[in-house]
């Protein structure tokens, strides 16, 4: 039995932190996992910037409420679910993801959690497990499932490599050049066909 494992940001919805950067006019927040492979380093960098500017969870949630899935993402997800099981494995946080999951029809999401003070300041974050995307894919495989994975960033590469089939989607030119062994797609229809063929 196959299970499709998808990244969230950059694949189904726009990058949350880029939206926050644009809404708050803080360009430093545009840095994502496409730019910084070390997720802990990236998040600590972000939290320092939020603290410096006095921004808390509410301000970010207000921006997230304005974000819609990428054009065609919901239709793609619904078609994919007709083929088999789909889960989203993301390094985002439960406190961010809920409104996005509603707009995507409540798919299964495995993600992390923020540590938030009573006044709304984001003081830290709790990762679900080490190397969460890779660890999750390996756990699914140990349960007798074949995984097919797709993502766009450095933090997706481990789960793509570990899966029976893996694809880059809307990735950077640099990542595509560095990992030519992974087919890269820009359109949902092409990714759908690749996943479908991998299941045959």
Q: N-to-C SSE series?
A: EHHHHEHEEHEHEHEH
- So what's the overall shape? globular
Radius of gyration: 17 Å
Distance between the termini: 11 Å
What is CATH's topology name of the domain at 2-12 and 71-112 and 128-199? Rossmann fold
- For the secondary structure, the number of strands is 7
Low-confidence sequence ranges? none
Mean pLDDT: 94
* Number of DSSP helical runs: 9
Largest sheet: 7 strands, mixed
Which strand order do you get reading across the main beta sheet? 4-3-2-1-5-6-7
Describe this structure in words.
The chain has a seven-stranded mixed beta sheet with strand order 4-3-2-1-5-6-7, with helices on both faces. It has 200 residues and is of the alpha/beta class. The mean pLDDT is 94. The protein is built from nine helices and seven strands. The chain has a domain of 125 residues: 3-Layer(aba) Sandwich (Rossmann fold), CATH 3.40.50.1000.
Chain-wise SSE layout:
Elements: E1 2-6, H1 16-24, H2 39-53, H3 57-64, H4 73-83, E2 85-93, H5 94-103, E3 108-116, E4 122-126, H6 132-142, E5 146-151, H7 157-162, E6 165-169, H8 173-178, E7 184-185, H9 188-199
Parallel strand pairs: 1-2, 1-5, 2-3, 5-6, 6-7
Antiparallel strand pairs: 3-4
Helix pairs in contact: 3-5, 4-9
Entry summary:
This protein is α/β, with parallel strands linked by helices and 200 residues long.
Note the main attributes of this structure.
single chain; Rossmann fold; alpha/beta; about 200 residues; 9 helices; 7-stranded mixed sheet
